[in-house]
Design brief:
The chain is of the alpha/beta class and 311 residues long. The chain has 2 domains: 119 residues, D-Maltodextrin-Binding Protein, domain 2 (3-Layer(aba) Sandwich), CATH 3.40.190; 155 residues, Periplasmic binding protein-like II (D-Maltodextrin-Binding Protein, domain 2), CATH 3.40.190.10. The protein is 36% helix and 19% strand. The protein has 10 helices and 9 strands. Strands 1, 2, 3, 4, 5, 6, 7, 8 and 9 form a 9-stranded mixed beta sheet that branches. The longest helix has 21 residues. The N and C termini lie far apart (61 Å).
């Protein structure tokens, strides 16, 4: 007969210690990358994370705005960068671009007229910034402008496009994010605002969402929307036109990421390198456009240089 085997207290302690060491080893191998910033980019960043994680299962990501600023590895900034935005020791690169368009409530009485005439530069400044102008929009047209109450990248980018700052936008401040701006317009027949393609269009059907109408941009400033300016039927029509023409009239802005170039976690730079080389194929799916060729090349070279410095 076999003798019953009994663990001594010493042996039990050894096994517990070995188990703890094994667990620590697993966690030590799992690196974490914390990302926060412009929330309108989160759907695309989540897609990038999901695809990258398939190849790097031991890498853990946290994509959340509610993180201490000093704990974030990658900060997303979606407005024109000033010199003061890039602090000492930080590296900034562009990873994609996005577009904003003027939107109104689809039930407003003059929506057909607006879509025939569109907005030119003078109209934008009249409607959103309260400037006196000779725009093609009737002087008695009523617009209730909705803007972000807090400082926000998209609002800052919108204002910068017209040589202004976010504080110069006239209107009612909305608490929340860009989706809340859309909801405000949906609930006010005279509402007008601005928003990005990923929220204006349904990403699955590629059609406009309910209760929202786009005011076309009068690209050639002739007071009417010509046939070749009617580009808003689907999300993909807008994306194609934007990348084909790179029209300066379109409200296009780069999405930047800032990260600590001395970060001991090399996986941060590796992830961003993958985003630039392999992740761009997902931009259109989420309503973003690709970088200009020279900008993409510069971003990749910057990342490669930072990685080489770590060798």
């Amino acid at each position: 007969m076999y003798k019953q085997f009994s663990l001594t207290n010493s042996m039990k302690k050894i096994l517990v210690t070995l188990s703890m060491l094994a667990s620590i080893g697993v966690f030590a191998q799992q690196s974490t990358i914390r990302i926060a910033g412009t929330r309108l980019t989160y759907p695309l960043f989540q897609k990038w994370i999901d695809e990258y994680a398939k190849q790097h299962p031991n890498l853990h990501f946290i994509l959340n705005s509610k993180q201490p600023a000093d704990s974030v590895d990658v900060s997303i900034v979606s407005h024109r960068l000033a010199a003061t935005d890039v602090k000492a020791g930080k590296t900034a690169i562009a990873v994609c671009r996005y577009i904003q368009l003027p939107v109104v409530n689809s039930k407003r009485a003059d929506v057909a007229i607006l879509q025939e005439k569109g907005f030119n530069d003078a109209t934008f400044k009249q409607v959103y910034f309260g400037e006196t102008s000779t725009s093609s929009i009737a002087s008695d047209a009523v617009f209730t402008v909705y803007k972000r109450k807090q400082n926000a990248c998209a609002s800052q980018s919108f204002a910068n496009h017209f040589g202004s700052n976010q504080k110069d936008i006239k209107g009612i401040g909305v608490v929340g994010d860009d989706k809340d701006l859309l909801n405000a317009v949906k609930q006010d027949v005279n509402g007008v605002s601005y928003n990005n393609l990923g929220f204006i269009y349904n990403l699955k059907t590629r059609k406009l969402i309910d209760s929202i109408a786009i005011v076309p941009i009068d690209f050639n400033e002739n007071g009417k929307i010509d046939a070749n300016e009617r580009i808003y039927g689907t999300l993909d029509n807008v994306l194609t036109y934007a990348e084909k023409t790179n029209s300066p009239k379109l409200l296009i802005e780069e999405v930047h990421v800032l990260y600590n170039q001395n970060n001991p976690n090399k996986e941060v730079a590796n992830f961003l390198k993958w985003v630039l080389i392999n992740g761009q194929q997902y931009n259109h799916e989420y309503g973003f456009i690709n970088l200009l060729t020279d900008t993409k090349k510069q971003s990749i070279e910057t990342i490669k240089q930072r990685l080489a410095e770590r060798e």
